[in-house]
Amino acid sequence: MVNLAPRLDQWRKFDWPTEEGLCQKLIAIIESIPEVYIQCERDTDQEPLNRLSDKGDVVKALKDAIRYSLSQEVACPTFCYGKADLD
For the chain, which residues make up each domain, given as ranges? Predict the structure, then answer.
């Protein structure tokens, strides 16, 4: 499971990937792991999840989530892709 947390502490000295690098890695995960589950929420459990099935829609949502985390100039997407294994 990949859980995206779009608002991290930008002042901490993490080895942040580039916007494009992060997006490409997440797309590679989607394409190489059939059972992947990705979820992105701005306010956990406050809004229903938009369940995506088309990879093109997932790529757009990922890019929007990354843009939100960088500048908050776009709305944070609330979505999931794949099937959550809650066992």
Answer: 2-6+18-81
User: For residue 78, what are the contacts with CB-CB under 8 A and spacing of at least 6?
Assistant: 40, 41, 42, 47, 48, 49, 50
Q: Would you call 64 exposed, middle or buried from its count of C-beta atoms within 10 A (0-12, 13-18, 19+)? A: middle
Kindly report, residue by residue over 55-84, the tens digit of the pLDDT.
Answer: 899 989 998 988 888 777 788 889 999 877
**Cα distance between residue 23 and residue 28, in whole Å:** 9
Which is it for the CA torsion 85, 82, 66, 76, positive or negative?
negative
Residue 71: the pLDDT is 78
Q: How far is CA 21 from the centre of its chain?
A: 13
